[in-house]
Specification:
CATH superfamily of the largest domain: PAS domain
Number of strands: 5
CATH class of the largest domain: Alpha Beta
Oligomer: single chain
Radius of gyration: 17 Å
Number of domains: 2
Structural class: alpha+beta
Order of helices and strands: EEHEEEHHHHH
Largest sheet: 5 strands, antiparallel
Shape: elongated
C-alpha cells in the first residue's frame, strides 16, 4: 500500500473533520466527524493560505492551511526531515547564529528552561534573543503561546 508523507485534513468552519487521508489518520488518529484543533484552530476568510509549524509526537511538521471556501479549510502537513530543512527555512530571516539556534529550539517545541540548558545562556540573553526573533519572525510568538498552552 502506498503511503503519502503529506497529511491532508479538511474541516468545517468549527473544525469538524470531514476528510482525512491515510497519513493524517496515522498522525492524528481517526477524527472524521469530530472537532479537532490539533494543527490549527480558527477560520479566516480574509486569507487564502497561512503557514505555521507544529510539533506532533516530537516531530516537527510544516503546516499549510488552505481556506477552500468560507465554510471549509484544508490543512496540509509535511514532515520536516532534518535541522538542515529548518535552517534553510530560517535563513530567509537574516538571523544571527544564536538567534538561529533559539529559533530551531522554538520550532521543535522546547521550553525556555530547555533552551537555557541546551545553549548555556542566561535568562536575560534568552529574553533578548526572543524579542529579536519575535520582531523578525512574528509567527514564532504564536508558536510559543501554543506550546505554553499544551
Amino acid at each position: 500500500m502506498y503511503q503519502s508523507s503529506l497529511a491532508v485534513c479538511t474541516r468545517t468552519k468549527d473544525n469538524t473533520v470531514i476528510f482525512q487521508n491515510g497519513a493524517a489518520e496515522l498522525l492524528c488518529g481517526k477524527k472524521k466527524d469530530e472537532i479537532c484543533s490539533t494543527c490549527f484552530s480558527g477560520h479566516s476568510s480574509k486569507k487564502l493560505f497561512s503557514k505555521d509549524f507544529i510539533t506532533l509526537h516530537d516531530t516537527l511538521y510544516e503546516g499549510v492551511h488552505c481556506y477552500d471556501s468560507p465554510k471549509t479549510h484544508t490543512v496540509f502537513l509535511q514532515k520536516y526531515h532534518s535541522f538542515k530543512a529548518i535552517r534553510r527555512y530560517l535563513s530567509h530571516f537574516q538571523l544571527t547564529s544564536q538567534e538561529l539556534k533559539v529559533a530551531q529550539c522554538i520550532l521543535i517545541g522546547r521550553s525556555n528552561q530547555d533552551i537555557l540548558n541546551e545553549l548555556v545562556i542566561s535568562k536575560s540573553t534568552l529574553k533578548t534573543h526572543l524579542n529579536h526573533l519575535y520582531s523578525k519572525i512574528p509567527f514564532l510568538k504564536t508558536k510559543r503561546k501554543e506550546c505554553a498552552r499544551d
